[in-house]
Amino acid sequence: MDQGLDTQTGAVGVVGDRNGGPVGPASSDPPSHGRLPSWMKTSRAALAFGLALILIGGLVANTAQTNGGNIRISNVAFPTSTGSMMTGLLYVPVTATVKTPACGVVAIEGYINSVDTMDGFSIEMARRGCVVLDANQTGQGTSAPPAFLDGYGGPDALNYLANLPIVKKGDIGLIGHSMGGWASIIAAATYPKDYRSLVLVSSSTSTPGLEPIPGTATFPRNVAVVEASGSEFASLMWAVPKGTMFPESARMQALFGIKSTIEVGHVYGSVAQGTARVLYLESDIHPGLTFDPSAIQHSVAWMQSTLDGVGPLAPSNQIWLWDEIGTFLGLLGVILLLFGAGGELLKTRFFASVARRRPQNRSMRGLPWWIGALILVLVGPLTFFRFQEYGQNQFPAGSIFPESITSGVMTWAVGGALIAAVLFLIWHLTSRAPAREAFASYGLAETEGGPVDWPNIWRSFLLALSSVVVVYLGVFFFEWAWTSDVRLWIFNIKPVDLVHLKAILSYIGPFFLYFFVLSTVLFGQLRPRVNSLGKFMAANTALLTIGYVGLLAIEYGVLGATGELATSSQPLLAIVAFQFVPIFLLVGPILSYFFWKTGRVYTGAFACALLITSMIVMNTALQAPPW
Questions:
Q1: All domains of the chain, ordered by start, with CATH?
Q2: What would the pLDDT profile of 451-470 be if each residue is shown by its tens digit?
Q3: d(Cα 605, Cα 25) in Å, to the nearest integer?
Q4: pTM above 0.90?
Q5: Which helix (H) or strand (E) element contains residue 368?
């Protein structure tokens, strides 16, 4: 009789092989019920709580997005001048009709972002009566690749909005963050009669990679520059080493038509003549301005002073943060679905055999454990910039690996996996018996030195795939029901489309290798000796996350003290590092949960490879069409 592993409590029992005999060594983990936190005692409760968060979060987000039903939001798609398709969200106030056309705003996100990044600007401008097109740049979000095509999509986004019969001709403003600012500059140069004013949010009049369009005292028309004193891109945007030096930037002074220090908050020129200029400088960083109420307040106020049809609602009156709260609840909800679905599936007859007893814990102890843990914590952050830069250089965007950022992360992951594998192998070969052949204790095999159970691995993959599919059912539902994605700031889980699916399949193999090696090291060499699943998840997650928290603390601590990043040559990757903290806050629990439940590394590694690869690919620009 197979007692197996209780898939609800995680308790260890006797597991029989196909012939009815017991397999695997006795567990050295302390006896426990392996309970989740009190609010999530069973997988069924996790499912129920996850669904509740999705519903509550969706209602909160939708109420904010639609301003209580006064704004209609829809997905739109339109062709560019070269025939590529762009997408975006169209916010239409109920007051905007063909008979009563409204003011318009084009909001464009920065590099490796999508429409959700600009939701604060979009919601607040729509609340004040403007029709807002929150557009995905070419190759970003669900806009067709390649990225950077057609002036980043800026001209075609403006042309689309300007030709809607519900938008008043010429009464349009442009708001662009980072590269979206460049897209807005190109749009203004392409269609000079279709817009009236522009806000550059941590952006500039420089357009790297394209024919430069310098800013002058008369072009673009009526410009507000909203900048961050801690901007990582001060040199790229305004040719000064520090954000605090923006008022002294010769490039910005040329835009303002002066040769002296710019006075922050002072309006230069004339709105009526189209020469108005103003600089707002916030105590923030480059990506932070899209999540900054003050930056949104300045943008709204500028549009109120330069467009005709913007409502008088005070710029400080903002509700967009409720949208962020709702989407965050949705994010937590879909993540809970993974654990709930995994636990429930393990109770089924088909997947019950995947739940094996947790193997004997032969991980390191004492000082060797601390040394091993320190190496694990440091390897990823210490190789973070070098390996990613190498990968982007060695794997230029093409049909197989179409995203340079993802290719860099892939190279970093594979490089880290190789380093970890070599160190783990040295430890394995030099350890005293029986650890020398203790593949079972690593969560790789069924018995000491025994063969790998391939049917079990196959079912582990199906378990992981099924659990991740449930997550994406929640994601697709959230998008279908409320035209929104689940997220926290720039960290989100987006619905997967067929174009991106090809890219995911290209990258998933190397990422699986990384998570497989990481799991083997974590649970074979560094497995904590704790008696509950909650402590197990917390300990492993802390190990995986603390290094990236430290990396950010160093980079941005130096930025705060000196005005420049510690690694000033890598501003983009420093920003990318922000997402590694929530990624590992997710990876740690997933790997830990499935190891605790199955006694093997495979299900967790498969689940992370499927989910994390999809998330990275969907949140990065496609610089070439996938195969």
A1: 68-318 (3.40.50.1820), 367-618 (no CATH)
A2: 778 899 999 999 999 999 99
A3: 22
A4: yes
A5: helix 366-394
